[in-house]
Every structure is written in C-alpha cells, then in structure tokens.
Specification:
By secondary structure, the chain is mainly alpha-helical. About 70% of the residues lie in helices and about 5% in strands.
C-alpha cells in the first residue's frame, strides 16, 4: 500500500527512527565531561554546573582588631608613652616656674626671665603630650581599632591656645615694665599645666586601647595550643587518658 505515492514500509521505518532518536536524546545529553561546554560536567548524562566548595561560598570572617604587638610596634608604644610623660613633666615645670615668677613679681629682672621660661615650657608641654597621643592613635588604627580624637583632645588644645595667646600678651606687657598681677600669672600658668595634663591622660587612654588589644590576642594564643593537643591525640579516633591509650 502506498501513501502519497511512497511505500508504507518507508513510512514505518521513519517512524521507528524518530521514536528511537527522541528517547536517546532525552536520556543522555553527554557521555563524559568532554561533551559539556565550558566548566560544566557530565552527571547522569546531563551537563550541570560544578558545585562550589563550601569554603569558597562562605564569606571570610572579619579579622579581629588587635593581635600581638611586634617589636617595632612595642617600640612605638614606648615612644608614645615617653612623649606623653615628657609633656606631663614639662607641664609640672610650667607650674613651678609660674609660681617662681609670681614670687619675684615686682623686681626688675627675675620675673622677666622666669616669665619667659614659663612661657617656653608651656609652649612645648602640651604639644609633646599630643605627639604621643597621635602616635598611639596611628598605631591603633593600623591594628584595626577605631581611634578618633576625643573631647579631651579638643579641651586640651583650647586651653593651650588661650594660655599661649594671653601668656604672650602678658609677657610682652611685663617686658615693657607694666604691672602684672600675681593672680593673672598663676591663672595662666595653671591653665597651661592643666592642658598638658589633659593631653597626657588622653594619650594614656589611647595607649591602653592598643595594649588591651594585645592582651586579648595573647589570651587567645594561650588557649589555642591546648585545642591543638586535643585534636592531635584524638585525630585517629582513639581515646588517650592518664592510664594510656584505649
């Protein structure tokens, strides 16, 4: 029997080929990884994307601030502490020289010399202490701490500016033989000393923040060797006790 002028056997053969081709294509897209494009792999006859390792998928943990201080960092901490202490000592010297200036007030030469020395000490005391604080904060930021200028820093610099401005004017008046009250001399001297003391305390606070981060890191390191030891003795599945291995 012919259909459209073509023998029925021909149509039967075509139907069989089409029926076989469909299931084979659905059953197997690939025989191995070479049959897949790009980085895809062959799994059960299908090309799929490879699974990402769990370590690659996990987001990296933020590195904690601090850590054990290096030798260079320890030197920087020591330098910051020395600068702040120097500023404090100079502030104390400012107070003593101011008192001496007031005690000799009324004479010709002594108050002028002592007043000049007082102004010079006040001019370097607070900046010395501030230099130590700036160094400590730079180190803290490099180690991941949030180190910002505090209100104490602002107060110290404000007092320093007032002291130096008025102190310079008072000293110039003294050089021109104008009468200066002891109360004004002592007030400006005390303001300069308090400014250096405030800056010293601010620097010490910054240093303590840096050192506190090292103490936390040292505590973690003291605990870690015990965990490594426990993992080593139990890695093969055996139990180790005081009496031996079981």
């Amino acid at each position: 029997m012919k259909i459209l002028g073509i023998d029925r056997k021909y149509w039967s053969g075509c139907a069989v080929m089409i029926g076989l081709a469909g299931p084979l294509e659905a059953r197997a897209q690939c025989a191995d990884d070479m049959g897949c494009k790009g980085d895809r792999i062959c799994v059960n006859g299908e090309c799929v994307d490879p699974e990402q390792p769990a370590a690659a998928q996990a987001s990296p943990e933020a590195k904690p601030a601090g850590g054990v201080l290096t030798e260079v960092q320890r030197l920087q901490v020591s330098q910051a502490r020395t600068k702040s202490t120097t500023g404090l000592v100079l502030g104390g010297g400012t107070l003593l020289m101011g008192a001496a200036t007031a005690a000799t007030n009324g004479s010709d030469t002594a108050p002028k010399v002592l007043g000049g020395l007082t102004l010079a000490l006040a001019g370097v005391a607070t900046p010395f202490a501030a230099a130590g604080g700036a160094q400590a904060r730079r180190l803290g930021r490099a180690r991941g701490h949030t180190m910002k200028a505090t209100s104490s820093t602002v107060v110290a610099w404000t007092g320093y500016g007032v002291c130096m401005g008025l102190g310079t004017a008072v000293f110039a008046a003294g050089l021109s033989d104008q009468e200066i009250s002891n109360g004004l001399i002592l007030s400006l001297t005390a303001l300069g000393s308090l400014s250096s003391l405030t800056m010293y305390l601010d620097t010490r606070s910054a240093i303590q923040t840096v050192e506190a981060g090292e103490q936390t890191a040292s505590s973690r390191q003291r605990i870690r060797p015990e965990a490594h030891f426990a993992a080593a003795v139990t890695a093969d599945g055996a139990s180790v006790g005081l009496a031996g291995r079981f």
